[in-house]
């Protein structure tokens, strides 16, 4: 059996950094972890190839080679998925699909797909393979059960061309103990926090290392610190593994704000090679946090918590949302003030999005406030999925006032300086050739050929780093490069909103 695994194209978005990948000499930020995990579930005697459309083209020859075309996709990849399916069918190939795009119910739009492998692939994919090989496959495979991920195999890193990627991904857990109204994780992965074993994770680290990777690794958990005692046991193992190999990996993860209350956990993350965490801040308004069930954020001083994490050596990037029913009139000004004061340089600001499968989606549906629109699965693309209480024009104008302010070159630069005022790095990651190359390429793209204010503040940031803040050179360089990407994103969002208006 010949299986072709295809990762659909990701549109330009806040997190894919397409605008600056050429500067760091990469094609894609993150690997298709779901696909290479599914590949590890497939029979050992199958021939398997993987094509990531974000790094290479899908040719007719590749499609003709395969007996089955497997696609795993998120909602944002929907447009690309449609094109892949149509091409495969035109060439007489059967298509197998899975991933969040189809779990959310939009599989009805893909009724022509041959086979749907829904929910967790470790459960449903083997069932499909068994039936397919016996000549009796069903069209749809579902399961309400949650898989014991202690039995998940090591991802097939050998299927990737690692030179194309800026970061690898691993997964330690699935599920999140919280139940925020706007989040679809309880629907997808449940609230039960399921983990792999520390020894299992070390095997994955070792396999990744054996395949030649050194650099960034993202722990792709819903909430990495969902169970602090289990995470601490893991981190002790990782720290020893990293130390014995001179720290080949620079780690990042998603975590909740309660990380700030656990000094031991932060210390262990630093000892394990963690550089930063993404935290869903959402809003500085405590009443709104309670209304949307983000209780873990509502009972803490968010600004102090962020500075605590920064001062312990972890950089904080954050997610912010506007458009809640309970947003006060001054929410846009408060978001700006909070983001600037916190020193969260990479701040993802989005409009509240009613994801299918979330409690918010169900509530707005009952209230008759959902807007039928193309579901893009991203809250940073100015797509409105419901009628906001504050009014559409007020929301759009307020949203643009926030993003235009915090990503203007001057305010962005000031936020970098505010960040390093509180950031106290414990581990200094060595300057490697890749960083030096990125530095030289950034000078060409941003310091010489770029036009406008970005060039001015790029040089201003580098001069600060070289003359006064050399301890933070890598952090300042990274954020100076990302400034170009964010400017491109704001231009796209502004064009989209003006078109809607």
Can you give a write-up of this model?
The structure is a single chain. This protein is α/β, with parallel strands linked by helices and 501 residues long. The protein contains 19 helices and 14 strands. α13 packs parallel to α15 (392-406), α16 packs antiparallel against α19 and α18 (453-467) packs antiparallel against α19 (473-500). The protein is globular, with a radius of gyration of 23 Å. The model has no long low-confidence stretch (mean pLDDT 92).
Main features:
501 residues; alpha/beta; Rossmann fold; TIM Barrel; six-stranded parallel beta sheet; 19 helices
Topology:
Elements: E1 2-7, H1 33-41, E2 47-52, H2 60-65, E3 68-72, H3 78-90, E4 94-98, H4 100-103, E5 115-117, H5 121-133, E6 140-141, E7 167-170, E8 173-174, H6 185-188, E9 194-195, H7 198-210, E10 215-219, H8 228-244, E11 249-255, H9 263-271, E12 274-282, H10 286-291, H11 295-298, H12 302-311, E13 315-322, H13 331-342, E14 347-351, H14 359-366, H15 392-406, H16 409-422, H17 433-448, H18 453-467, H19 473-500
Helix pairs in contact: 7-8, 8-9, 13-15, 13-16, 15-19, 16-18, 16-19, 17-19, 18-19
């Amino acid at each position: 059996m010949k299986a072709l695994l295809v990762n659909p194209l990701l549109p330009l978005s806040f997190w894919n950094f397409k605008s600056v990948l050429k500067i760091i000499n990469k094609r894609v930020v993150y690997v298709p972890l779901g696909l290479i995990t599914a590949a590890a579930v497939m029979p050992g005697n199958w021939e398997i190839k993987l094509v990531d459309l974000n790094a290479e083209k899908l040719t007719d020859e590749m499609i003709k080679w395969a007996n089955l075309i497997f696609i795993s996709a998120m909602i944002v990849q929907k447009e690309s998925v449609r094109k892949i399916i149509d091409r495969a069918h035109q060439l007489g190939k059967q298509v197998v699909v899975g991933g969040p795009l189809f779990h959310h119910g939009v599989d009805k739009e893909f009724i022509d797909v041959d086979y749907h492998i829904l929910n967790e692939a470790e459960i449903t994919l083997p069932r499909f393979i068994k039936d397919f090989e016996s000549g009796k496959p069903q069209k749809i495979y579902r399961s309400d059960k949650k898989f014991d991920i202690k039995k998940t195999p090591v991802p097939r890193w050998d299927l990737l061309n690692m030179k194309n990627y800026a970061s690898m991904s691993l997964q330690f857990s699935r599920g999140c103990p919280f139940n925020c109204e706007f989040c679809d994780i309880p629907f997808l992965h449940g609230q039960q926090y399921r983990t792999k074993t520390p020894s299992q994770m070390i095997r994955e680290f070792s396999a990744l290392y054996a395949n030649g990777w050194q650099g960034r690794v993202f722990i792709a958990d819903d909430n990495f610190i969902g169970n602090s005692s289990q995470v601490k046991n893991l981190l002790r193992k990782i720290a020893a593994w990293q130390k014995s190999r001179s720290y080949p990996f620079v780690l990042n993860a998603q975590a909740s704000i309660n990380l700030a209350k656990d000094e031991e956990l932060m210390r262990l993350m630093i000892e394990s090679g963690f550089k930063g965490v993404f935290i869903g801040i959402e809003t500085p308004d405590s009443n709104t946090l309670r209304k949307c069930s983000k209780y873990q954020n509502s009972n803490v001083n968010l600004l102090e918590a962020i500075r605590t994490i920064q001062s312990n050596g972890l950089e904080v990037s954050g997610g912010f949302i506007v458009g809640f029913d309970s947003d006060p009139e001054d929410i846009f000004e408060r978001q700006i003030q909070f983001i600037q004061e916190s020193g969260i340089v990479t701040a993802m600001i989005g409009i509240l999005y009613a994801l299918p499968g979330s409690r918010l989606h169900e509530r707005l549906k009952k209230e008759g406030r959902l807007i039928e629109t193309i579901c893009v699965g991203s809250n940073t693309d100015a797509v409105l999925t419901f009628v906001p209480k504050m009014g559409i024009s007020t929301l759009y104008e307020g949203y643009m006032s926030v993003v235009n302010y915090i990503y203007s070159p001057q305010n962005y630069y000031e936020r970098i300086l505010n960040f390093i005022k509180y950031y106290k790095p414990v581990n200094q990651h060595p300057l490697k050739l890749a960083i030096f190359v990125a530095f030289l390429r950034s000078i060409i793209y941003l310091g010489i050929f770029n036009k406008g204010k970005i060039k001015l503040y790029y040089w201003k940031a580098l001069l600060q780093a070289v003359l006064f803040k050399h301890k933070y050179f890598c952090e300042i360089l990274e954020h100076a490069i990302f400034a170009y990407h964010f400017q491109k994103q704001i231009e796209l969002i502004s064009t989209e909103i003006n078109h809607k208006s």
